[in-house]
UniProtKB/TrEMBL annotation, chain A:
Residues of the ABC transmembrane type-1 domain: 79-290
UniProt record similarity statement: Belongs to the binding-protein-dependent transport system permease family.
Compartment(s): Cell membrane
Keywords: Cell membrane, Membrane, Transmembrane, Transmembrane helix, Transport
One annotated GO biological process: transmembrane transport
Name used for this protein in its record: Sugar ABC transporter permease
Ranges in coiled-coil conformation: none
From TrEMBL, chain B:
Bilayer topology term: Multi-pass membrane protein
Keyword Protein biosynthesis attributed: no
PANTHER family registered for this protein in UniProt: BLL4140 PROTEIN (PTHR43227:SF11)
Record keywords, A-Z: Cell membrane, Membrane, Transmembrane, Transmembrane helix, Transport
Ranges for domain ABC transmembrane type-1: 93-307
Domain of life: Bacteria
Entry's family note: Belongs to the binding-protein-dependent transport system permease family.
Name of the molecule in the record: Sugar ABC transporter permease
GO CC terms in record: plasma membrane
Keyword hit for Cell membrane: yes
Pfam families in UniProt: BPD_transp_1
Length: 301, 320
């Protein structure tokens, strides 16, 4: 009897395992294959890709796409703009978010609940696109680089909550009291004790902001018309989606449209890789931190 | 504190002087440094988030270029009535609701299932590899994602080849009314399912190990453990996230829909937010666009409040 039940149990366990690992393998392939395909297609001959012969490994290795990309000044200008906006933007984001998060973590600060509501309310209600656009216009931020740095997302409330929760859990209340007795004020306590203890959360939030700036398409679309100051994502839109692959308007129309389109697609695969590379390079190192951010944020404060 | 203690000890004193209660105002001098630290964030949010809220009244006014954001003539509900009566109203509402409801119905359970599956993997290395892979697409920009879909799913791309191999070659996945919503929703799941599962995995890792042990002693199968131990453990997280998701039910992903739009799928892909962009930013009809935008915001906000109320009544879990 006991042997029989043991056998039956292990059989159902086997099915269960098959189901679990089967699902996992399907999930893994569904996510990994499109990414892998873009990589191999970007270094294969465009004819091979178009005729569907590139499936698992690159065929007739070719760097045509990358050569075109390296000679395209639009991409590098967009790259440069995005690097500037991301660096400056993230600095401003941190300068505003982190001190505010520290203050909101202090239990003795009486306006804490009121100000928390002030910030959280903006998560659920906002003025909408048009009033925000007109405000930016009134402030003469339209068509300037500053709109990428000062906008309604400069203080990201989600990041604010992550940092505040972190401070609440890692900086004991008594620590400030002890420091205050020794004559330390809030400025000094924050800069010399809190910040050095919070490197983990600082890097998480800096990375969140960096990725946001890197991937930001909306701001350029709405607020900027001048193509010289457009960020990378707008240039990518022109190339990948509006199909303006060749800088000087050598379009895809005409009799040899299909032929040109093959090369255009080749360039597109390369552009996807080149533009996403910085994020992909830091990703494996930072994955743990990113994950940690979600977990800290999920602790209801 | 010390003074009060001394007073209570001396029995000849009958009146105990209480310390004055701290308020925002009488602690201002003590906490002025804290105020200085938070002031830049308050100013920034005040300007860029709260002034536009004040500017919502534009929806009830005639926009006047010379008079600025709120100086135009008051016209009441004129633009709301214009929107409700416009021939696009029905299509916009239908498209918006269809896209957002499908996104929630398909996209909301997916990370829960994925988290439960990942949690079952016993081989730690396999677990890490899978997690690293499925989180990755979250960091790809929307432009690149839609660009990838354009090169892969186009009839001449690998996706198109697969479609014709299974006999569906005449369907263009990117430019058809029928396939727009499935492609939109499934690519959304593809991009975010891994990342969204993290929060459930965190909740699962907090389950008391004793519960597993006692379930095993009672002879529960692994499926029964999932159903009776793990799902109840993550229910509070599910409810909170469901409320938050309901709050955005009608605000579809503007950027992605905008990028996926083309003349062939427009009958199904025009939603309120893309229409606001076209009317407001492209054609400069600010008041009309602001009214449509406000319409959208109000539906969102009331859904959030209603869902929160419902959740509070039924499960005592709420956002506030």
């Amino acid at each position: 009897m006991s042997i029989f039940s043991l056998k039956r149990k292990s059989l159902s366990d086997v099915f269960f395992d098959i189901f679990i690992y089967g699902t996992c393998i399907i999930m893994f392939l569904a996510v990994a294959y499109p990414l892998w395909f873009v990589i191999i297609a970007s270094v294969s001959d465009s004819g091979m890709v178009a005729s569907g012969q590139v499936l698992l490994f690159p065929k007739e290795f070719s760097l045509f796409g990358y050569k075109e990309i390296f000679s395209d000044s639009r991409i590098w200008n967009g790259y440069k703009n995005t690097v500037v906006y991301a660096t400056l933007g993230t600095t401003v984001n941190l300068l505003l978010t982190i001190p505010a998060a520290y203050v909101l973590s202090r239990y003795e600060f009486k306006a804490r609940r009121l100000l928390m509501f002030f910030f959280i309310f903006t998560m659920f209600f906002n003025g909408g696109l048009i009033p925000t656009y007109l405000l930016m216009k009134d402030l003469s931020l339209i068509n300037t680089m500053w709109v990428f740095i000062f906008n309604p997302w400069t203080v990201n409330v989600f990041n604010l909550i992550i940092a505040r929760t972190f401070f609440e859990h890692t900086i004991p209340k008594e620590m400030y009291e002890a420091a205050a007795i020794d004559g330390c004020n809030h400025f000094r306590f924050f800069s010399q004790i809190v910040l050095p203890l919070s490197k983990a959360v600082l890097s998480v939030i800096a990375l969140y902001y960096l990725v946001y700036h890197w991937n930001n398409f909306f701001t350029g679309l709405i607020y900027v018309r001048d193509s010289g100051i457009q960020p990378l994502q707008i240039i990518l839109r022109d190339i990948l989606i509006s199909n303006q692959v060749f800088g000087e308007g050598a379009g895809t129309g005409g009799a040899d449209g299909g032929y040109a389109q093959r090369y255009a697609d080749q360039i597109k695969y390369g552009v996807i890789i080149v533009s996403t590379l910085p994020v992909l390079v830091i990703y494996p190192f930072m994955q743990k931190y990113f994950e940690k951010g979600v977990m800290i944020g999920s602790v209801k404060g | 504190m010390a003074i009060i203690k001394m007073e209570t000890k001396s029995s000849d004193l009958t009146i105990i002087t209480k310390p004055k209660k701290d308020t925002i105002f009488n602690t201002f001098k003590r906490d002025y440094q804290l105020w200085l630290l938070i002031l830049p964030a308050i100013i920034c949010v005040g300007i860029f988030n709260y002034i536009p809220m004040y500017g919502i009244q534009l929806a009830f006014r005639e926009y006047d270029f010379t008079a600025g954001l709120t100086g135009g003539e008051w016209v009441g509900l004129k633009y709301f009535i214009q929107f409700v009566n416009s021939h696009l109203f029905y299509d916009l509402m239908r498209n918006t609701l269809m896209i957002s409801i499908t996104t929630i119905v398909v996209g909301f359970p997916a990370p829960i299932i994925l988290a439960l599956v990942i949690n079952q993997i016993r081989v730690q290395r396999a677990k890490r590899v899978l997690q690293t892979t499925v989180y990755l697409p979250h960091f790809i920009s929307i432009v690149v994602l839609v660009g990838m879909m354009n090169v892969i799913l186009t009839p001449s791309g690998i996706g198109g080849n697969v479609m014709s191999a299974i006999g569906l070659g005449d369907i263009n996945l990117l430019a058809s009314v029928k396939t727009f919503i499935p492609v939109y929703v499934l690519s959304d799941v593809w991009q975010h399912v891994g990342w969204n599962s993290i929060i459930y995995l965190a909740a699962l890792s907090a389950v008391d190990p004793q519960l597993y042990d006692s379930a095993k002693v009672d002879g529960a199968s692994r499926w029964q453990i999932i159903r009776n131990v793990e799902i109840p453990a993550i229910t509070p997280t599910i409810v909170i996230l469901l409320i938050l998701n309901m709050g955005t039910i009608i605000s579809t992903g503007f950027e992605k829909i905008f990028l996926m739009q083309n003349s062939l799928n427009l009958p199904i892909s025009e939603v309120i937010e893309t229409y606001v962009y076209k009317i407001g930013i492209v054609s400069n009809q600010f008041s009309y666009a602001a009214a449509i935008g406000l319409f959208n915001t109000l539906i969102n906000f009331s859904l959030l409040v209603a869902m929160n109320y419902l959740a509070k009544r039924t499960s005592r879990i709420s956002l506030w």
